[in-house]
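User: Look at the shape:
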Amino acid sequence: MAPNPKFDPKAKVFENIQISIHDLYRATVEAGDGVTLSARTFRNCRFEGPALILVLPGTRFVRTSFGVDDIRSILFRPVHAQKAVGAIPVADCLFEQCAFSVVGFTGHPNFIDTMINELGRPQALGGNA
């Protein structure tokens, strides 16, 4: 299956797109832009899974919807200290006013703890609880 032709996988800014995070990752790798989605800005984008994102340093989420009422349901603590095989690595990226659907997240224990502390209580979908 060919990647979605509506985007440039080497672009540094993506706005107003709806895409499978896996398709973006595959297109990025096939375009020779490395095995980590890095130094990118995503604004008002919708990302579809199923997928697991490995959140690396420098990645930020601003006014983002994770598509669940309890953030703990999409967080996965890594078992190995250095590897997360099968996860899509994302570093130094900004996700602003984006939405994720059927996407899980893993990363350093500090990332997991911060997400739980800031968003861990059940919230109304799409609301500011």
Remarks:
- The beta strands are 13-15, 18-20, 37-38, 41-43, 46-55, 60-62, 75-76, 88-91, 94-96, 99-107.
- The radius of gyration is 14 Å.
- Helices lie at 21-30, 109-119.
- The longest strand covers residues 46-55.
